[in-house]
Amino acid sequence: MRKLLLMAAMAVLGAALLGFGAARAEEKESAAVDRAEVKKEKAEREKAPEQSGYAVKNIVQRVKKGVIRVQGIDITSPVVAFNPGGGSGFVFEVDYDTHTAYAITNYHVSGHAMVSAVKFWDGAQYRGEMVAAEPGIDVALLKIQGIPDERDLPADQKTIIPVTLGDSDQVRIGEFAMAMGNPGTEEGANVNRSDPWDTFLLGQTVTTNVVTGRDTPLEFEISIWQQNRTSLSWQYGTNFPYTFRVSVPINGGNSGGPLFNAKGEVIGINFYGGAFVLMQNHNWSIPINIAKDFVTQILETGKFERPWLGVDIIMPPYIKGADQYVEFVERYRPENIEIYGVRKDSPAAKLGPDGKPLLQKGDIILEVDGQEFKSPEDLRLYIFNLDIGTPVTLTVSRKDPNTKRYKKLAKPVVVEVGAKRKFNAEFSV
Amino acid sequence: MKFEWTRWFTGAVALALLASAAAFAQAGPGEKTQDAVAAATALVRPSVVAIETRFDEPRLDDAYMFWQAFRGPRPLYGLWGTGFIYKDPQYVVTASFLLEHAEFIRVILDDGRAFKAELVGKNDDFSVAVLKVDWGPDLEPISPPFGDSTNIKLGQPVAIVGKSLNSVDTFATAGIISAVRKETPNAEERTDKYLQFDASYELSFIGSPLVDAKGNVIGMVRDTAGTNINLGVPINEIVAEADKIIAGETAETWFGVETQFITKGIIDAGYAPRTFDWNNDGKAEEVDFGKWVSYVEPNSPADVAGLKTADLIYMLDDTFIKDDYAWAAFVRDLKVGQLVRVKFVRRNETSTKWEAMETQVQILEKPKEEDTEKGATDKAKPMSPHGGMG
Amino acid sequence: MRSAVLLIALSLLMTAPALAQGEVIAERVAAEVSDSVVSINSNAVAYGEVLGFGGYEFGRQIRLTTSYITGFVYTKNGYIITDSQDIENATLLTVRLNDGKELDAQVVGVDTEYGVGVVKVDSKELLKPVKIIKSHYDPLTNTYPYDQGDPVLAIGNSGGFGGTVTSGVISAIRNFRNRNGILLPSVIQTDAVVNGGNEGCPLFDNQGEVIAMHDRRGGGGGMQNTTFFTPIWLITRVADELIGCFEQNKSLTDCQVWHPWLGIKPFAGSLSPLDGQLREVGDDLKMYMDIPDQYWDTGVLLDMVWQESPAREYGLLDHDMLLDVEVRNKDERDIVPYRMLKQIQELELMVTTASRGDVFVFGVLRNYNYFKVEVVVGQHPGSFATQAEPGAIQGFITEYF
User: Fold this and answer.
1) Which residues contact C372 (CB under 8 A, 6 or more apart)?
2) Domain range holding B144?
3) Which of A102, A305, B158, C353 could form a disulfide with A419 if both were Cys (CB 3.0 to 4.6 A apart)?
4) Min Cα separation A98/chain B (Å)
5) pLDDT tens for residues C30-62?
6) C347 and C322 in one domain?
7) Residue C385 falls within a domain, yes or no?
8) Touching partners of B (3+ C-beta pairs < 8 Å)
9) How far, in Å, are A18, A39, A410, B11 from residue A14 at the CA level?
């Protein structure tokens, strides 16, 4: 009888202990019995959070100390007073020895200003200096001055924790994405009577959904035209490899802010968007890899270059607007990759051994480096990922001036990939 | 003693752990499914095709104003949207609206290859169109996994896997099922159920598959009724209609009324009685039944049978119209040539008393829309949550 | 030892499949709470062109569409909480339950400042009330029962589609003014889709509890997925008072929904009578008023004190500087321990969350003298609960609080 009672007591005690543990499933600080599997769960979360269903709030806790509010200060304006504008950004590197941090934002947020006011999650404000900006990819690099030396502090006491930059090429369509930033709205004014515009930007706003897809630069431009119906000036040209289309809600003020994946790594910079009943949550992010490349090159060499041949294969250079392009494609569905033009002073315009330019307008590109490309877009991306200085071998078909018929050139054309230094709003490759 | 103690304790622990295991499994709507949308997209995209049509002649109709909004005020040469490979992979299913006036149809696979397609048939009431595609001898097209829409739950995570406006890129958006409804959303529809979801929609997603967390197709994206108020057809309805179309039973029936289920507002305004003895048992019952006719199409079977606006239809043959579902279920199974006995309530002009009346409606085949007065005026009508077409 | 190993192994075994599986909370919550959310038609029948009954000349314009807002069942016997908009001047109210049943409803009371309305339906069966979260924001420890990033569900009459369920996360929790300018603590901002018709809609957490009610959409509805919700503790505080008044058949003057106020207008953020610009307490002003150095970064400088207000009654004057504060309730319990006042926001929030009879003990600086003034928080003069009688509401003066 006593044995039975003892067993029953044990059972109840055990159940109680673990029931308590179950009730506090989220915290998992509890009973000694749980410890091993608590450790296992924690390890699992650290390793592959998206597999174990990592909660959004945990991602937020990890990254919020790196997300900033950026406000360009325009010292030429007569009143350096309040400016309800501004946007978002993120700190990716910290140097305690020099008390500085590096941050990225959009050029259109602060790139025109030499100095920006940078504010963190706790209200702490610092001076951010423009290091470099490239309007062609809408990226600006800031150097933040005067940050405290927190190297000896544990993570939960640090006030600034840099975010981790991810790999935008690894992003899958439909993957979880979270935006964090400071969308602005008039409702936010006057919360703080002493500083009415202080909360105009809804600081550290979190929104989530998925990465919807990748838009080619052209699709991106056409979409903007569809949204705004403004006469498009091809703002970014082919300077991006692609843009992420995301259905994560973003608004004005989110610009420059980070797009995180489930692991809390930055995969994009939110910079454009709109929402209409027929194009809901139609937003875009710049893939982080191009920004990483920009930062690396600027910090190492002081300049930013991308591979370039100088040929127009996406569309003829005379096309100046999205509506013209749409009509061009409707009428004339290109079957080949045709060179519509060769840019002056480009690698493709260099004179060959015969004294003529290596590539000419009207040439059809059949193969590049032994590969066939199904579309100009595919070829564009191929060249986009080459190193400057790489020789590229093109099998070309050219119109014979006498017979007026296309004939494959006997010798392949070798062009050395050059450097694109001016990132205009045009579509040459 | 020691060993037994351990066993009992282990048993108790195991039991308690079972309980805590359930607690550990807690996840919010976006959490466990974080990976699910990406996995579902990868699974389904080989079966998702872009649909491009060319009209018989360039069009400027209001009906296509949405597509024109993307291209400026020029004549439209054709439409574009999405579709998916059917259970039988030689067919592709898409939204019927895309196929109007289509002379030439093209489907484009995820890898960019384009194929010619022929319209097998369509049913506008269910928004379903079936295309037959000439895939050629080398290609073995893949059908996506098909789900069962009878068990769709409110709040269930769903994703749209659709094509972009350039007919090349595949896009995915995620959300949840916002509602599963039995009312018909507008006058054209005859579905007895439609899905509402908040996953972001765009125009080129018309005809896209709606997939659940496991990648099963549970519906087709049909339309939008507002910001993130997006509508879809449940897959079971699609399969039922597509099978009929493939089997050659494609005649659409025509009744000719626009209706809405009775509301207190209609009664309070005096357009329907408060109580009525519909089954002649001497007891007048509160009127919370019946479909109230708001419009009768000129020259339609209903018009010919003498039905008029403000009639309250409460019986179709032996079916008592106690709710929208009863109406839709009856009307959906109508056949061309069928004779339907309609019982309705109408206020007598002279005596001003509410009277039970009866008529016979001969169901005809639905005429082409341009040929009806309603078709011509109806095209750019906005969606409303009420109303149903018989 | 072996038993411990066995235990651990067993526990790992038990939890692994559970972790892999995962229940989808949104489905469970939606199923649980859908019956507690209703649509409220506050208009009479909305007509298009009525061309007369006798001649059957209706035409298609007479589609009798009705516009609904949202509400949620508060008690089993039929009290329903909703937004104050559209309820105020309603002459005919219909409540539509999730199963489609329509019930007549009457207005119990409306509070336009906090945006709350209560209606009552007469239902033969007991209705299913919502679960309401018990704990709420604790200003002393600055903790919330929910976190930024937590998943939430909104259920409402989105765009006329009743019972629409949308999901999102808590985008932020911040001190924010409601649509009438009252500063509230811990307003929830979410990215769940909300449309017109969602007025009065509840926000549910993972446990299926209501944590907040819709206040307004960002940018007047123009922003993507940005909506503000008022925390439920305030909504139910107001609803309980409205219901109390209704059940006791109190007249308009006897019954007031508690709107705490002191009657002070801070200098900063007030409008200058000279040029209408927003004023701020700059260094020159501090110098002019000869405020000691140590108080330059603290304190709330008052511009004016309303003539009929608790502040005036208990002895505060124009241009007083409030340096520190302590709040006690009427039983002498400390609500807010003594602290220096650094921001006007803090004080404003203390007033919003004050209860009847709370005493604000201010350390006041006036004419180089420092002394204490005790002010008992009072009822704002401009608010009265209505019992289906419109017109008693005066404008809420946001300059003073």
Assistant:
1) C361, C362, C363, C364
2) 27-250
3) A305
4) 39
5) 999 999 999 998 754 333 433 333 333 333 333
6) yes
7) no
8) A, C
9) 6, 20, 84, 9
